[in-house]
Input
Amino acid sequence: MNEAGLALDSSGNFDYRKNSANGVKVPRLATPIPSRGHRGGVIPMHRALAHFRLGPMNLVIAISLFVFFTAIWLALLPKVCQFWNRVLGLGISLLPLRASLGLAQHHLTPFLRFDIPFLRLEIVLPSSQTWWLTCAATAALFAATFFLPSKMIPVIYLLRGILLVPATSLFYFAFLPARFPHTPDSYMEGMVTAGIALISTVPLLFGLTYYIFDFGLMKKAFLTAITMTHLALFLPLQVLVQALFLQKTVLFMPMLYIIFGMPINILIIIAFYSWGMTWFFRSPEKV
Output
């Protein structure tokens, strides 16, 4: 046996003796198999896979919930857009925001028409003062990553990756500010449209990744409803916060789009999905 094998075996024997002395029964395997850990313990199957039973009833529930929530969302979409319009109008009146409301007409079918509300903002190119302040802040944050402890290496590289976005934006606006192809109006409209598209995909995403597990009908319906409701309430607030930065300068648009745009909404979906996966499965007697 080589040195690595001896070390692993010694580590496993040490854990076995330690747990045995404490009265804990530790399973021992005679031969190494894929489910054996490096200290000799057994790696159990993940709870989701252990309770995965893709039976006919789960398939029927998955398809039914997908059709139900998609139909409800499309039916309520015109009302949701009207609600967003009121929230954005209230935000303009309460916040220090120099913007006006715009409406973009859309229709999916001859019977489904809705007006997407968005904020109209004047395009403001970065002044030299704004450019240099942003450059200094970006450089300071990048330098600060070198003072973080080595145990925070994942955070360090994440921050450096994020700082690459404003660095690229600064480089672009230093040489080609007049050629920036996007306007705040088109960005705001595109953001609301992307938010609608993302919310519309929630039933499909959960149908493929959550409904197939045996959590029961009520839990599946509740998780879908609360996720879509949260996203619908979050979107107009997200638009207002981003507008507060965009009214200063379009220098911040790449950062707002790549880091604080739809990725935040996607993380919200992942968070709700992760929460739902911690719930108890139905017992076998109820299947």
Notes: Residues 56-94 form the longest helix (39 residues). The longest strand covers residues 100-109. The radius of gyration is 26 Å. Residues 1-18, 28-32 have pLDDT under 50 and may be disordered.
